[in-house]
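ok trying again, last paste got cut off:
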Amino acid sequence: MKKKIIIFFFIPFILIGQENRSNISWLSSFKFESNSLDQKILNNLLFTGHITDSIKNTFLKSSKENNIINGEIRNQFTYSYNFNNQNIKVSIADINIINTHFTDDFLNLAFNGNFPYQDQNLNFSNTNLRVNRFQQFKMIYGSVINKININIGCSYLLGNHHVSYIIKEGSLYTAPYGSYLDLEYEVNTFITDTSNLTAFANNGKGIATDFSTNFNIKEYDIWFSVEDLGYITWNPSSISLAIDSAFTFQGIEVDDIYNFNDSILNESNIIDNITNIKNTSFKSYIPAVINLSITKELKSKYINKYTGGIIARWQPYLDNTLLSINKIKQGIEESNFKPLYYIHSIIQTNKYDVIPQISYGGYNNNTNIGLALSKGKKNKLIIGTNHLEDIFNGDNTQ
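nice, full thing came through this time. structure:
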């Protein structure tokens, strides 16, 4: 008898209490998004015990020219206090993020090796993997000045762990019959102190800033915010590896298989090309969120208002240039997040509020349907999902 287990992750889950001068909230969210990895492939990878040729072929057929996977687990406690058109908000969050971008050619090489791609040039430029774990201690102060709400915040970041592999340029050419290989690559790798692997290790420290404002223009409410614009500087015990090279490998000739030693490898000049490891401090950026939205109140019995907006993320790979227009564009492109366009509204009923949403962009190229339910006034519970359509997509769920 075949059994199928479906787990629904509703995001965000927010509990709010004492909604007057004081406000306490708890947020737990789990996000997993991909433009190529669907549920069927994920189940096979996680639960079958091994990767068969059938699984590999299915994954390769579903892959795209640029494949993106993003996952985030966040638990956050927030307390806010309102007084005299002012407010202070304090929050503590535990955040885990994994973000990766890889080309179709990189996936083919990883699963099949280079034998099927003789006399072809495989391109794996702009392939990257970033993993972050940190705690964030944030304080935000808000005030109303000339009918304009302004909020300014700062955060202290306690970095636990970071791993990043960034292949800026990379290609592999395999000659017919494998007579030689042409490999070109520019790789940067950063790993925090491997001797301290505890969950709340103190491997780095950083700061982040927040800014938001909203104001009215006639019957429209304009909102603009920049959240979590910051970085973590990791301690000097971290590992850094930088490679920028190109070489042609024509194989190793072995005269005596019983006398195969390290000198043969040294003569082939492979080791000199790939080892350049050092312990040093480095800086990594956390994903900043930029949001611009317009809201209009409606004189409707059921629909309270509607909001339309755009969200972008900013997270450059490296701290290698000064802040400029080009740096801003670079950070948006290297975040692996396409601008997300969305519209949502609030529908009021006798028992609860319904919050529908439709969006396009982000970490995939799909049109996404969101739905949340809000219950209560003084004490409020909100539960929902940003991807309602995937609940009904079965094995094609992304």
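cool. The longest strand covers residues 148-174. The radius of gyration is 25 Å.
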